[in-house]
Amino acid sequence: MKLFGSYTSPYVRHCRIVLTQNNDKFEFIPTDYTQSAQQSPTQRVPFLHDGAVQLTDSASILRYLRERHQQPFCDDVADFDLFCLANTALDATVNLFLLERDNITTENSPYLQRQKDRVHSILTELDQRDWPQRETYSDGQLRLACFLSWAQFRERINVADYPRLQQFLLGMNHQPWFANTHPALS
Predict the structure, then answer these.
(1) What torsion do the CA atoms of 72, 2, 135, 157 make, to the nearest 10 degrees?
(2) What is the pLDDT of residues 14-42, one digit of tens each?
(3) Listed residue (78, 81, 44, 80) closest to 62, CA to CA
(4) Which pLDDT tens digit goes with each residue over 163-182?
(5) Of the candidates 48, 59, 69, the residue with the CA atom closest to the CA atom of residue 1
(6) Phi, psi for residue 53 in degrees, rounded to 5
(7) HEC profile of the chain
(8) Which end of the chain has fewer surrounding CB within 10 Å, N or C?
(9) What is the pLDDT of residues 116-136, one digit of tens each?
(10) Sheet of 2-5, strand order
(11) How many angstroms from the chain centroid is the CA of residue 64?
């Protein structure tokens, strides 16, 4: 099994965590923008090759990895909704980050300001919830933690503005499989 991606990608990190938790043998192949544009129709990471199986999105990869071990991918509709909320915030934040590198900022784009507001709205909503402090986490919770960790690492959000989410992330950081995949370790 080969997982293509970057060590800093939160989408790739989620896949790496599941592979590690399940003790799956895999080869991680660092992949940049040029390589992903040539090797994946989505032109992004992660993508996975496992014999005849070729997957091009982290959600499909996660489902495939879970099914290999008879594990649920998003236990119920509430967890799937959490996964989707975290993904929406993550996608918007990644786009803002990449556009900012090209000098396109929220100051000169009402659409980008709406994206920034969307992220804040989602985080505000999620900060109202109670979060577990345990060793077993759902895919919705894992996606949220990967997002929060990446957004903090890239200085996109101040997680201290969301105290319950900050506590949740602190708890996640005590899990070796989460701490050992932090983007700063690449």
Answers:
(1) -100
(2) 999 999 999 999 999 999 889 988 998 99
(3) 80
(4) 999 999 999 999 999 999 99
(5) 48
(6) -85, 125
(7) CEEEECCCCHHHHHHHHHHHHCCCCCEEEECCHHHHHHHCCCCCCCEEEECCEEECCHHHHHHHHHHHCCCCCCCCHHHHHHHHHHHHHHHHHHHHHHHHHCCCCHHHCHHHHHHHHHHHHHHHHHCCCCCCCCCCCCHHHHHHHHHHHHHHHCCCCCHHHCHHHHHHHHHHCCCHHHHCCCHHHC
(8) C
(9) 999 999 999 999 999 988 778
(10) 27-30, 2-5, 47-50, 53-55
(11) 16
pTM beyond cutoff 0.90: yes
Per-residue tokens: 7? 């060590």
The per-residue pLDDT for range 41-70, each reduced to its tens digit, is 998 899 999 999 999 999 999 999 999 999
Find out whether the peptide bond into 163 is cis, omega within 30 degrees of 0. Answer: no
Q: Using only the alpha carbons of the chain, give its radius of gyration.
A: 16
Tokens 């690492």, residue located: 153
Q: Which amino acid is at 7?
A: Y
Tokens of 12: 């790739």
